[in-house]
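Colleagues,

Please find the record for the three-part complex below.
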Amino acid sequence: MSSSSKTRFTPKILTAYDLLLGEAVYWSPCGTWKKLFHQALLLTGESRANVLLAAAQADAGRVFGAYLAEARTGADGRPQPTHFREAFRTRGPSNLFHGKQAELASEGLENV
Amino acid sequence: MYNYTDFDRAFLKARVVQFDDQVERRIGGALTEDEFRPLRLMNGLYQLLHAYMLRVAIPYGTLNSRQMHKLADIADRWDKGYGHFTTRQNIQYHWPKLRDVPKILAALAEVDMHAVQTSGPCIRAITADHLAGAAVDELADPRPTAELLRQWSSDHNEFAFLPRKFKIAVTGSETDRAVIRAHDIGIQLVQGPEGEAGYKILVGGGLGRTPMIAKVMRDFLPRADLLPYVEAILQVYNQIGRRDNKYKARIKITVHELGIEAFREQVEARFILQRRHFDGSDQTVLARIEQDFTAPEFLDLPTGAFKAARREDPAFRLFADTNLSAHKHDGYAIVSVSLKKHGATPGDASSAQMRALAEIAKAYAHDELRVSHEQNIVLPHVPLAYLPRVYAALRAADLATANIGLISDMIACPGMDYCDLATARSIPLAQQIARRFDALKLEHEIGHLKIKISGCVNACGHHHVGHIGILGLEKSGIESYQITLGGEAGAEAGIGRRVGPGFSAEAILPAIETLIKTYLALRLDPDETFHLAFQRLGMAPFRAALYPDAPRTPLIKRVPELNRQYRDQSAQSLLTRALKDPQLGRTALVSSFGAESVVLLHLVATIAPDTPVLFVDTGLLFPETLKYQKMLAGRFGLSDLRILKPDRARLFEQDPENSLHQLDTDTCCALRKIGPLQEGLKGFDAWITGRKRYQGGQRQALEFFENEGDLRIKINPLAHWSRGDMLAYIAKHDLPRHPLVQRGYPSIGCAPCTTAVAAGEPARAGRWRNLEKTECGIHFPPKDRKTGESAGL
Amino acid sequence: MSVVIDDNGFCADHWTHGFCRVDDLPARESTGPLAVDIDNDFDVSALRERFGGIALIRVAFPTATDGRGYSQARHLRMLGYRGRLRAAGHLIADQYVLARQSGFDEVEISDSLAARQPEAQWRNCASRARHSYQTLLRT
């Protein structure tokens, strides 16, 4: 519950997989799951993050596989991934134009 | 192939209903994700980075056109129009939605297909030799055994929650195309001492984090004992396999920790108990299954059209020479269809391509297809007569890439483009390698080479058993690729060894190119494949090539290794390779342009005329030598000739009147020859000399390679040449000899210390005649000069 | 408290004589029938000599994903145990048939687990005709 002695809690976002579609979703400030990384709520406090994570894990109905991913604030003030795996997850595969990159392009939306 | 019975169909039907119910209970909340996960895994439903993934079983890689059509329909209706064929002979769909999965399973059941146990901690789909029933070297078709095991393992009540997944592979020949040595249980069909049918049973193989080659449990197990024996293995494993640590939970760890003897003891004891519960019904079932696997009615068709097409169409000839394997029936061939078009995703096929394959199989290939663990499709029974038509149809479907077994026929897991477990991407690397070597037009030149790429330590790309294995990891927040060499998947299975530190995504392709360049430079001939060359040469030259700045092994250790690698080679072969061998670094030829020098100069000039040639002008040479040197250098086109001269200041100080040689030949040699040569050799790692054993004295035990302390390597390509060899070479190439030779000077040094030699005297008798000195000292390291001791000759 | 499940669904626990841990088994054959609790990693062959005096063996299932219990049951049956076998702990309705076919006669789960997986689900899973390849291939 309380943070381990030396390591500072680094900013994170809460992410999971949509139960029906299997796509990545992000917990947003308005208390719903959204499709885009930069719509996520940036979590800077460890206890709040853990509480939200536990709630997401118990919320069997909409999502599964919830976890906290490293994040930072981008130049535009919105959350950005720090690790390349999370960056890939916001786009889709690099060999075919499938996944979020295609979905969002067709909706005229932009991901990170 | 296996014909489903009513029982089989009822099983699948019930399974689909069951999973449909489980999905609804999950959506409704009656099942938590923790409870649902093992259930969906047992029905092949994974979760990947971007979506769900459904893994459909293709038991022992065998399917017919009707089934292939259904796979195409599923791709179009519920996925994105393509499927991915895997190293487990399965097909994966990367974009299904949860609610559609029961519908997909129902569609699969219509053609007797399913996704049972393609995931989860249970016995997975049984894999087998993809050339079963067609290969020339097969003892017996492994697929009836595989089908028996499939039935036995389906929904096995006792083994639904093993410590970890469990994989069984079966082969019917010594040539192990099913990689049984890398499976939890590997089974080979064998004959007993009296010709009776039975199995060799191996256990505890696996790739992944801790790769291991399987160990033999039984050299011979009678046929009727298979199921009780396998049950005994599974039961013991289920009870004692580790469950405390996911990475130690496979049976290979259990066997490793217990030891094969102790493990076998437990299994054999349990086997005795198990055998009482098998009354022979399984053998009746096996006999019935075997009837479904009799050979097709082979046709006897003329092969004229095939031969003509080979003659007349170069593209067809290339395809036939690369993608066909011998079939046990005359007039037939096994056709491998590559899913590795240069630049495409390895193993992917579009729905259109799947339909084309189905139609080709139905029309021309006895309606049978296979999926190989190398992510290609195989048409196992194709009459040669139909090959031109098959080829045309494959071309129309963009499936005619002629690269089976070549460098671009890579195995690559989906990697971080899809997989949740991955640490790096593998597909882009495979695409780059394929495109690069296609552009260089080197594939056929390189020959047989298996590159296998895994996007994480779980090794689904089988990198451990690739001739070149690539493992994608992460280092300091970016993708980092490690190379392993020396892996092999077949009967001589072996795990590759890491070459050194990993390469970034930008550096890995150049690294692969370096490896290929090194192989091409050092191989004995085109028949020596990459893997054979690696076995002969070892890691050293490849490591030296990839990491030129790494600290080197001390020469005293490297030299015996070099002598081993180059043993039995001819002078030409040695020179050709040594001049490009990364283990030798920068190499120069040192020549005195003396009596026999022309041979080595000519050899080097024909192989690499830009090799630096060092010539020491001592200031006391015969004028004939200087003239000869100029003439030869020009005639042979030696473009990097370096004339070394003694240091002028020292010369003035020590020998202003050119008379030192009369008082002290050693000091004179040091001043005029050794000193300048040592200066000139600075910056070189190795130098070539023309010394030969037959010259006698300290040269009698000469090897190809020697070390000069830890300073440089000396290369003596002519070490084993006789006088006769020298004369024959000179005659053959009509080479001009040093003019003093015909005047009685078989060995020529500086003028003051060289005299003619009478008949019957040794060739070097005229050098420093009447002195004890026999060598000038350049072949001694400088510090030994004073003692005159020979060092390493 | 807990619920016992058999082929008819939830039922009362017919066994009222208590359970003892395998380490506490009386040294000699006692007068009454015995019921023994064993962990799923216990070496069941150690009980072989005592089969005659044991009426019920209860095998612990600490999690639904730990399948050792099924082999415990099968191994006991292969060794000749004819008494009752009960799988107890974390099992889900879908595992009822696995338990029965491994040699268990019944399953025992906690009340809270029973609340989330009510009787209807257990009966549904049990009644669905189960196609067992294993019964075709062996005894």
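The longest strand of chain C covers residues 54-61.

Comments are welcome before we finalize the supplementary table.
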